[in-house]
Amino acid sequence: GAVVSQHPSWVICKSGTSVKIECRSLDFQATTMFWYRQFPKQSLMLMATSNEGSKATYEQGVEKDKFLINHASLTLSTLTVTSAHPEDSSFYICSVPSSGSGNEQFFGPGTRLTVL
Amino acid sequence: GNSVTQMEGPVTLSEEAFLTINCTYTATGYPSLFWYVQYPGEGLQLLLKATKADDKGSNKGFEATYRKETTSFHLEKGSVQVSDSAVYFCALSATSGTYKYIFGTGTRLKVLA
What is the reported pLDDT for A113? Predict the structure, then answer.
């Protein structure tokens, strides 16, 4: 399966600053990547679908101006949390869909964001 | 709407014990069902999947059967090992051809030697 990396693995920032998280597909070209958010002891929630060469598709209730997604190339998608606040503290995970059948996805290791 | 309900953890077992992690779902139509595993410091990995009723997914000694009548996809393993310690996620993909997943909350398994 595809190898997906995320950087950084964890980040601590002050309230009001912006944080960029990178998701890279190391051995697989991906026209689509997904961004999830996970709160402690809760499910992974799909935030948005990142599309190479076009705008991201956001899920209902996700603020597109707050969570900026840029799919710069077939191997890189970035999520920028703008003007972060403590309630944005969470675990952010990206994934790359498999080219095969069965709707399988390959997940990155996640980025833990803590906003002070 | 669609949802996945997964038993809460943590689950602590001794090595060679029998494992069951319950997962039930609510969905319209015929979803695909998945179990993902997340080892410490790593991303989620597909453990097994089933795409239609009565299908049994299996991998690494783990099994789960797609039961439409009980809307369940319980994960089982006959004899767990310390290396099975991880977080297990049940998920469904409700629409064929898309990748939108709905995840359960995850169950942490700890196996003691």
Answer: 96
Cross-chain residue pair A104–B45, CB shorter than 8 Å: no
3-state secondary structure of A84: coil
User: From residue B9, how far is each of A83, A110, B22, B87 by CA, in Å?
Assistant: 34, 21, 11, 9
pLDDT, tens digit (0-9, with 9 covering 90-100), for A2-19: 789 999 999 999 999 999
Instruction: Give me A96's structure tokens.
Output: 């790359």
Look at A102 and B44 and tell me if their CB atoms are within 8 Å.
Answer: no
Longest dimension (CA), chain A: 43
A63-108 pLDDT, tens digit each: 999 999 999 899 999 999 999 999 999 999 999 988 766 678 888 9
Contact B99 A34 (CB under 8 A): yes
- Taken in order A97, A23, B44, B33, the sign of the CA dihedral is negative
A46–B contact, CB cutoff 8 A: yes
Strands A111-115 and B62-65 come out as unpaired
* d(C-alpha A84, C-alpha A12), whole Å: 11
- B32 neighbourhood in chain A, CB within 8 Å: 102-103
Q: Give A67 to chain B, closest Cα distance, Å.
A: 19
